[in-house]
Design goal:
- The chain has a domain of 137 residues: NADH Oxidase.
- It is 45% helix and 14% strand.
- The protein contains 8 helices and 4 strands; from the N terminus they run ααβααβαααβαβ.
- A 4-stranded antiparallel beta sheet has the order 1-2-4-3, sandwiched between helices.
- The two termini are 28 Å apart.
- One of its GO terms (molecular function) is oxidoreductase activity.
Length: 209
């Protein structure tokens, strides 16, 4: 990776801050949101099972209803859209499609494909719901962070929201029992500068052994 690319990435990371005040008149097209998500899903995932899906809420009336579910957070209504990231607790059911696709693309040979599929089917279905939910939540975190950095690189602002009634959300949007709401991400154009924060010194958080 070139120095220029690394500098650009570093700038995006340092310039990204959580924004809670959005321009309600600025709209991001659905095509552009799809383009952001299309890059975001290149994030790593456990066994490449990609246990994520998204609901993009950009309808004005629906955002007003969602605001009530999300503890009346203003950004839900004023952002261009809210992207709900869901975690699939039965992600192992994707294994055949995932690895057959990799085989067809020439990334894995047939023997290895069959071995991974068999191993996944012998392991994941027997894991507890809590274990699978933790895996889905972890991977949802990875794709969410990638989403926010891509959005910032394209000139947009975001904020994550974990403070919402997940049961009411699931009921409102008819979420299947295998999928669990993980986080809401507001995306749009900032109306005011982001509230900046500091970090504790790295030296207090790192140990080389």
């Amino acid at each position: 990776m070139s120095t220029t690319t690394m500098q650009s990435l570093s700038e995006v990371i340092r310039e990204r801050h959580s924004v809670r005040k959005y321009d309600p008149n600025y709209k991001i097209s659905r095509d552009e949101i799809e383009a952001i998500l299309d890059e975001a899903i290149l994030a790593p995932s456990s066994s490449n099972l990609q246990p994520w899906s998204f609901i993009v809420i950009d309808d004005e009336e629906t955002k007003k209803e969602l605001r009530l579910i999300a503890n009346n957070q203003e950004q839900v209504e004023t952002a261009s859209a809210v992207i709900a990231v869901l975690g699939d607790t039965e992600m192992y059911k994707n294994v055949e499609r995932v690895y057959e696709s990799s085989h067809q693309a020439g990334f894995i040979d047939e023997q290895s494909m069959k071995r991974v599929i068999e191993s996944t089917n012998n392991t994941y279905p027997h894991a507890s719901f809590e274990t699978r939910a933790n895996i889905a939540s972890f991977d949802a975190g990875l794709v969410s962070m990638q989403l926010m950095l891509i959005a910032k690189a394209k000139g947009y602002d975001t904020v994550t929201m974990g403070g919402f009634d997940k049961q009411k959300f699931a009921e409102k949007f008819n979420i299947s029992k295998r999928n669990i709401p993980i986080v809401l991400i507001a995306i749009g154009k900032a109306a005011t500068p982001a509230y900046k924060t500091t970090r504790l010194p790295l030296k207090e958080k790192i140990e080389f052994i």
